[in-house]
Amino acid sequence: AALFMENARKGSIVSRANSIGSTSASSVPNTDDEDSDYHQEPYKESYKDQRRRAHTQAERKRRDAIKKGYDDLQAIVPTCEQQDFSIGSQKLSKAIVLQKTIDYIQFLHKEKKKQEEEVSTLRKDVMALKIMKVNYEQIVKAHQDNPNEGKDQVSDEVKFNVFQGIMDSLFQSFNASISVTSFQELSACVFSWIEEHCKPQTLRDIVIGVLHQLKSQLY
Where does the record place the BHLH domain (predicted)? Predict the structure, then answer.
């Protein structure tokens, strides 16, 4: 009986100890899981909302900027303001606006090149006129300094005779060298005649011969 009472007392103590340990363990809060979920979950949702809101604002700004760019192109490019009968009163699409803009830029490049060529031609004309002006000024000044200098100059008839003699000599060789059977043969003969009969030394000999002939006729 004493042994039974002792074992019962020990079993009661162990049971109470287990009960107390279980109660204590259940009463201690789970700081690793529960507190973490309680504090971090609202922060994660807030961060996601902020990122979503920032992305939405950035996308809206990007779309507004693109829309403003297309509106500016339609206002700047003249062809975008013209009525397109194939489209009617519908709003121009972005593809059409871009194509019209490209066409207008190409047109401007062509106009710029054309104007640059015209400016270059005008500059050459101005330079030639300046040279002619200087030469005429020198001629006028020389005539004013020596008014009797031009009395012994040759007449226009003599100059024409010199020109006629040169041309007659060239035409003789031209007529003897050129064939008019076909246009292709004519072209080939012309180039061949120029290379053979229009060399500087040949022309010099012709001019000298014409001048000697006129000199003998005049004197």
Answer: 50-108
Residue 177 is assigned to a structural domain of this protein: yes
Whole domain around residue 169: which residue ranges? 156-218
Measured in degrees and rounded to the nearest 5, phi and psi for residue 28 equal: -80, 125
Q: Which CATH number is 81's domain given?
A: 4.10.280.10
Identity of residue 47: Y
d(CA 125, CA 146): 31
Task: Name the domain count of the chain.
Answer: 2
Q: Which residues contact 43 (CB under 8 A, 6 or more apart)?
A: none
Whether residues 108 and 165 share a domain: the answer is no
Under 8 Å between Cβ of 97 and 80: yes
Look at residues 199, 173, 177 and name the one whose alpha carbon lies nearest to residue 188. 177
- Supply the DSSP symbol for 155: P
State the CB neighbour count (10 A cutoff) for residue 149.
Answer: 10
Residue 178's φ and ψ, nearest 5 degrees, are: -95, 135
Instruction: For 53-98, give the DSSP string.
Output: HHHHHHHHHHHHHHHHHHHHHHHH-HHHHS--TTTTTSPPPHHHHH
Mean pLDDT by 10 residues, the chain (219 residues): 56 51 47 48 67 89 91 88 57 88 93 93 89 86 71 74 89 86 82 85 86 77
Distances (CA, A) of 197 to 165, 183, 191: 15, 21, 10
- Domain annotation covers residue 163: yes
